[in-house]
Amino acid sequence: MTFLKLFWSFFKTSLFSFGGGYAMIPMVKQEVLAHAWITESAILDFIGISESTPGPFIINLATFVGNQVGRAELGVFGGILGALVATFAVMLPSFIIILLIATLLKKIINNKYVQGALNAMLAIIVGLILATGISIAFNVLFPTASGKLTFNYLPLIIAGIIIVVKILVEKLLKKRFSPILLIILSAVLGIIFF
Questions:
Q1: Looking at the DSSP assignment, which residues form a beta bridge with residue 165?
Q2: Residue 190 burial (CB < 10 Å; 0-12/13-18/19+)?
Q3: DSSP code string of 29-48
């Protein structure tokens, strides 16, 4: 039954979220916390891991969550099954929608109502991504330790170091600093500071 709930949670999250992985974070967080599968701090950890591993962000996140849920249910085999279920569930709506759009696209793309709906979705997506970024920043900068709100200045120091290094490298070498190197630098600084 847990695997069916896991499938349905990620399927509906993927089906009703527009704007990619970052826009889906609030719904994933809500589903995972509603079922008490994972703690809020674990979700933040999974978001960080998903962001720094290769592949689409939301698929990585679904795989990690599915693995944790499955492991809690059936051990290692359950972890593999949970990862597969959540990953398949999060990809299936996109696959179905792409098939439908491909068949209907030529007929409806120039419709003014379709264009209006797409423009409205764009504004919603920007809002969802902004809200997610603010939520994550607040949780990282103001963690709740034993029921008490505290201020964590270390992420600001890490961000400052990364910005300074990026600017210096780009000014001195006259080249764009690779996003991969930024991720590696962030990971190394995270390990050093935390």
A1: none
A2: middle
A3: HHHHHHTT-S-HHHHHHHHH
